[in-house]
Amino acid sequence: MRPSFVLSNLLYAGAVCCLLSGSVFAQQRSLSIREAVSLTREQQPQLRAQQEQANAAAYSVGLAKNTLLPDLTASYQAGYATYNNITGMTYPGGFLPISGPPSAGNTYDAVPGSVLSALLKWTPLTFGQRQAAVEKAAAQYQVAASQYNDALFRQQYTVIATYLDAVYLRSLTASYEANIARTATGLNQALVLAKEGLRPGIDTAQFQSVLAQAEMDLLTLQRRYFEQLAELAKLTGLPAKPSELQLTDTAFLSNTPDAPAATGGTGGHPQLRLYESKKVLSEAALKEIQRGWRPRFDVWANAYARGSGVAADGSVDKTDGWSLSRKNYGLGVQLSFPILGFAQANLQKKQYRSLLRADEAQLQQVSLNLQKQQETAQFNYDQQLLITRQSTVQTRTARFAFDGLKLGYESGLIDYTRLMQGQYELLKAETAQAGAYLQTWRALLDIAVAGGNLQTFLDTLK
């Protein structure tokens, strides 16, 4: 085994590390956690779609209020038809009735007719039905807005968690680089010792195998890091390639966060607000049903002019059909009430009362879940701080032990197996320490999530 082989492996590992650390010549796009959270709101298409859905729901309130305005319809029609008529009552629908006295027989010579009309309809008094519709539309808008806020909260949490995972993977780079360097140094030392006859030649082959595995581990880490950057680019809506992203908030993961401030309960949690708005919507829908079985008061006004090709004496003058020779106007009110609608109204009331009770139960469950989530998150944070302190001790002692084993191997006091076991324990301890720091920050994030305010987490970053 030649030293040039060791050098080539070191150069290869260094190239991989350069790619992983972002020290490439491509233009880099810096990205902080706060910017990533802000970009999620501004650039993610899915959230923009939900925002527009909430905006559309806001117009429903104006549409409900707009029913107070009168409806004025102007129309003109002309036709060519026969005028055979008869006296009697028929159920409306299925045919077009004609006006005028009954005819003595049938005449199939059609004559023209025309009409110009203006019809006004107004419902100024609804006995509370319009107000109930307005309240329901407002509640629907609140549900849509709450759904958007809840989706935004979830996406921003996902962005922060993805960012933390990416920083964690990047923090492992130094440990994996050091592991490659330790293995390469051991291989070089084994070559020298084997040449001098102090170590068996098989040690060099074993070191070569471990070095290849260490390089593969680094490549796997690079792939996982790339995947996290790709996910982060997708969540933030950035057009940059994953390899062009440069994470700027990385130093915080080497320290434990300060104790979180009091969250002030879960009353402002987006998920709780969503279920509160659903309950309000059910209340508004029930009120609309309760006011549905009430009278309806309408005002109408009509003015029109007609022309017919048939005169009052029965003579036919087709040219008169195009002249608006008869004019009328009218004004009136109408009060209507669905007398037999009480059965359907009562069934609908029972139905919507059950839906309201279901929403109340769901709201209670969500409130309980958030309360327990907050308690669990605080406990996990306290425990994770203790774990992080112990992981630091573990790494320090594992490094001390490896240094001693390395000296023992060079002196011929221990064999290859014990040295590799110590090196593995050191890498394992370094990885566990990085993971412990990550989990501590994740626990702090969980506290912020349980409180419904991610800003408490962002304020902790240094």
Describe this protein's structure.
One of its GO terms (cellular component) is efflux pump complex. This is TolC family protein. Keywords: Cell outer membrane, Membrane, Signal, Transmembrane, Transmembrane beta strand, Transport. InterPro entries: OMP_efflux, TolC-like. Belongs to the outer membrane factor (OMF) (TC 1.B.17) family. This protein is an alpha+beta fold and 462 residues long. The protein has two domains: 3-68 and 129-294 and 342-458, Up-down Bundle (Outer membrane efflux proteins (OEP)), CATH 1.20.1600; 70-125 and 296-336, Outer membrane efflux proteins (OEP), CATH 2.20.200. Helices cover 61% and strands 12% of the residues. It has helices spanning 3-21, 33-43, 45-65, 129-195, 202-236, 270-290, 342-410, 416-451, 455-458, and strands at 29-31, 71-81, 111-125, 245-247, 296-308, 326-336. It has a four-stranded antiparallel beta sheet with strand order 2-3-5-6, with no helix packed on it. Strands 1-4 form a two-stranded parallel sheet. It starts with a helix and ends with a helix.
- Helix/strand order, N-terminal first: HEHHEEHHEHEEHHH
Which blocks of ≥5 consecutive residues have pLDDT under 50? 1-7, 19-25
Give the count of structural domains: 2
**CATH evolutionary superfamily of the largest domain:** Outer membrane efflux proteins (OEP)
User: Fraction of residues in helices?
Assistant: 55-70%
Radius of gyration: 40 Å
How many helix segments?
9
* Assigned CATH class of the largest domain: Mainly Alpha
Q: In what order do the strands lie side by side in the largest sheet?
A: 2-3-5-6
In the CATH hierarchy, the architecture of the largest domain is Up-down Bundle
Number of strands: 6
Describe the main β-sheet briefly. 4 strands, antiparallel
Mean pLDDT: 87
Strand percentage, roughly?
Answer: 5-15%
How far apart are the termini?
A: 49 Å
CATH topology-level fold name of the largest domain: Outer membrane efflux proteins (OEP)
Class by SSE composition: alpha+beta
Question: What is the general shape?
Answer: elongated
